[in-house]
Write a structure and sequence with these properties.
single chain; about 45 residues; about 70% helix; elongated
Length: about 45
């Protein structure tokens, strides 16, 4: 193994990140999404 290589594959890392992201997205309900949209609009 070369010094700059990770012991796990890029595909494995991408899968873990995607799963984590999806869980975070599903944890936010519709009311919270609407609140976040309003916050971003007022912060522009």
């Amino acid at each position: 193994m070369e010094e700059d290589e990770l012991p796990i594959s890029h595909a494995s890392v991408a899968k873990v990140i995607k799963t984590y992201r999806n869980r975070r997205l599903l944890a936010i309900n519709d009311h919270e999404w609407e609140f976040l949209r309003r916050v971003t609009q007022t912060k522009k």
